[in-house]
Design brief:
polyamine binding; periplasm; 5-stranded mixed beta sheet; 12 strands; D-Maltodextrin-Binding Protein, domain 2; Sperm_putr-bd; 352 residues; coiled coil; 2 domains; transport
Length: 352
């Protein structure tokens, strides 16, 4: 499956146990050291795992994928037992030898995963990872306040939407959708094409009301903006609060991202890590997780237990025909990345 990145959030996490820090040496210890964004594993799930197994959890947070990779390199794939991060950085960790292959004999519930979310570019043979947070950024708008038809990314450039848009403040995503309107890849590296995309992007600035990475849904729900382009959980939040809002599956094609779980190469509590993976892959447990994190659920065994308000949310329940032609944002060259960032800096300054 060729599945945009942008799953997860940062901040302080309430600790699920009284133990602090990532420590411990052997699998005999009832300890599990988790490293990811704050709140990505719901506290009630962590507590129920501890109650069932007696394994105490130390939960450490990172703010960015790059911070995670740097830390993992520093500890040489040790210290942590479970890491959850975005697909492109997971691939980098695998390529650097920082990820241990899964022992699927210890994870019988791995079979609950939907095959359509497996076999991806970062783990083509499904040897290292468990898909967790699956998402696609989407257009959401208020039909009571928008008089133009919106079918795709190109419609965001309509002059009728002047000073109306809230967009995620993210270079790869917004330059990505600009490239998609040009028939190009989200991962375009040709400098001439990127300069053309820059000119196209600058034409969008007058339509942008605000750029907001963390809470773009608030701008839409509070009426400051009438059209938004935002990450899956943010779009789902919009529809949960106001079901009259509409979601658009852009006709130019969807970007997809998968945040995946892995065990570092020198994890101190490998057996406990596998026990945790097997626990969260239970259908009923997964059905408790996804209505809280509001991402697409890759666990097929969960669907008989998921509440209707989750399965009917159109930011989550994406039609099969719209999931056939999707694309990951992947790692690009340093030169191309620098150009993306330079273009984005100019755009942000132009928006003001």
């Amino acid at each position: 499956m060729t599945l945009l990145v942008g799953c997860g959030s940062a901040g302080d996490s309430s600790q699920p146990s009284t133990n602090n820090g990532a420590e411990g040496k052997t699998d005999e210890e009832k300890v599990l050291n988790i490293f990811t964004w704050a709140t990505y594993f719901p506290d009630d799930i962590l507590k129920s795992f501890t109650e069932e197994t007696g394994i105490a959890i130390n939960y450490s947070n990172f703010s960015t994928n790059e911070e995670m990779l740097s830390k993992l390199e520093t500890v040489q794939g040790g210290e942590y037992d479970i890491v959850l991060a975005s697909d492109y950085i997971v691939k980098m960790a695998i390529d650097k030898g920082l990820v241990k292959k899964l022992d699927k004999a210890q994870i019988p519930n791995y079979d609950n995963l939907d095959p359509s979310y497996l076999g991806n570019y970062f783990d083509p043979d499904n040897e290292y990872t468990v898909p967790y947070g699956v998402g696609t950024p989407l257009i959401v708008y208020d039909p009571s306040r928008v008089d133009v038809e919106i079918k795709g990314y190109a419609d965001l450039w309509n002059p009728a939407l002047k000073d109306s848009l809230v967009l995620v403040n993210d270079a790869r995503n917004i330059l990505g959708i600009t490239l998609k309107t040009m028939g190009k890849s989200l991962n375009e590296e040709d400098s001439a094409v990127l300069e053309e995309a820059k000119s196209k992007l600058m034409e969008l600035k007058d339509n942008v009301r605000v750029l907001d990475y963390d809470t773009p849904y608030n701008k839409l729900l509070e009426g400051e903006a009438t059209v938004g382009y935002m990450f899956t959980s943010q779009a789902a939040t919009c529809l949960t609060v106001n079901p009259d809002l509409k979601v658009v599956y852009p006709e130019e094609g969807l970007g997809f991202g998968i945040d995946a779980i892995f065990t570092p190469s020198n994890a101190p509590h490998e057996k406990n890590a596998h026990a945790f993976l097997n626990y969260i892959l239970q259908g009923e447990v997964a059905a408790d997780i996804y209505p809280q994190i509001l991402y697409l659920c890759p666990n097929k065994a969960a669907y008989e237990f998921l509440p209707e308000e989750y399965t009917s949310n159109s930011a989550i329940n994406i039609p099969e025909e719209n999931r056939k032609d999707v694309e990951f944002i992947q790692v690009i060259s340093n030169e191309a990345s620098d150009l993306y960032n330079s273009i984005w800096t100019e755009f942000v300054q132009a928006v003001g």
